[in-house]
Amino acid sequence: QKTFLACLLVLSVSVAVSNAACYFQPFKPVNPGDEIKGCYDSEGELHEFGSEWKTANCLECSCFRDGISCCSTYATPVGYDEEKCVSIFNKETCTYEVVEKNDHSKTCPVYGMVG
Question: What is residue 76's DSSP assignment?
């Protein structure tokens, strides 16, 4: 029974982590007939068609001929004691850590992840 519960826990965490939030932004030429040379990201940098990049906000983006597709690379913790604990996002690792509000050296149990 313990083995079954362990497998179920691993499966639920892996499904939640792989369920990224994505969006697609189609191109809107300023003038009809304008040639689109690639994808401009939110910083104004041009990316070639077929290229991929990671943003400072932990999104993985791809440039297609009809627009830009971006997906989050992280999952947001849910189902933890919000009165006792706080989630802290680390932009360097693109991960959340859930710790006690009064002592950030102590982690809190998390029962689910979304995103």
Answer: E
**pLDDT tens, position by position, 91-111:** 999 999 999 999 999 999 999
- Per-residue model confidence as pLDDT tens digits over 71-81: 999 999 999 99
50, amino acid identity: G
The CA distance from 82 to 4, in Å, is 29
Which pair of structure tokens corresponds to residue 46?
């041009």
DSSP 74: -
Q: Which two tokens stand for residue 43?
A: 């910083």
pTM: 0.64
Alpha-carbon distance values, 45 to 6, 37, 81, 99 (Å):
45, 12, 41, 36
The gap from C-alpha 33 to its chain's centroid, in whole angstroms, comes to 35
Helix (H) or strand (E) holding 5: helix 2-18
Q: In angstroms, rounded to a whole number, what is the distance separating the alpha carbons of residues 85 and 101?
A: 5
Phi, psi angles (nearest 5°) of residue 16: -65, -40
